[in-house]
Design brief:
The protein is α+β, with helices and mostly antiparallel strands. It has one domain: Jann2411-like domain (Jann2411-like fold, Orthogonal Bundle), CATH 1.10.3300.10. The protein has six helices and six strands; from the N terminus they run H-E-E-H-H-H-E-E-H-E-E-H. Helix 3 crosses helix 4, helix 3 packs parallel to helix 5 and helix 4 crosses helix 5.
């Protein structure tokens, strides 16, 4: 179960959920294949209460796939393997909106001050966490900072913290530079 990588802890949790689909030199992988994988990912992401079941796995994968489809559209991403061909844009919007419907903010008075919280609607703690991830994902999609990694073979997304950033990691940036170097040497102008 240790094969669930912890990718880029500085990225927003919604991006980290999207990046549970990742690639290496051999193939594209899914870090949410099993309930055990989900439990490990949720623990590392700091969400949920540890009491997850198969329905939570289905919900997490559904939201992840919807957000990846929407991210592909927002970033004009045509990378092979980055997005499931089974998810249409309209379906992805509807799925995300169904999670957003669980995100009703409320104002609470707590002792001497106020805090913003979420309406208790009977949803499981994990479902509420997924709703918060959907809200974070919607904010990222509506903003300008979400990017598809330009590294060769990479299928990850990232929130761009610097205007010149083009890759999810320094490793992907290095691979892209090496690939360009070899291409120039192979095809001199």
């Amino acid at each position: 179960m240790d094969d669930v990588p912890v990718l880029y802890l500085t990225q927003p949790k919604a991006v980290r959920l999207m990046n549970t689909v990742w690639a290496d030199r051999t193939s594209v992988h899914d870090s949410l294949e099993t309930l055990g994988h989900l439990q490990l990912w949720a623990e590392r992401a700091g969400i949920g209460d540890g009491q997850l079941d198969e329905s939570d796995l289905a919900l997490a994968r559904e939201l992840r796939d919807a957000l990846r489809r929407l991210a592909a559209d927002a970033t004009h991403d045509d990378r092979r393997g980055a997005v499931s061909a089974d998810v249409e844009i309209e379906t992805a919007v509807a799925v995300t909106n169904s999670f957003l419907a669980d995100c009703t903010p409320v104002l609470r008075h707590e002792g001497q001050g106020f805090s913003r919280g979420w309406q208790e609607d009977g949803a499981s703690p994990f479902r509420r966490e997924l709703a918060a991830l959907a809200l974070e994902g919607a904010d990222l999609l509506a903003g300008q900072g979400l990017r598809a990694c330009g590294g060769p073979g990479c299928v990850l997304y990232f929130h761009r913290s610097h205007s010149r950033r083009e890759w999810c990691s320094a490793e992907c940036g290095n691979r892209a530079r090496v690939a360009r170097h070899y291409q120039r040497k192979r095809d001199p102008a």
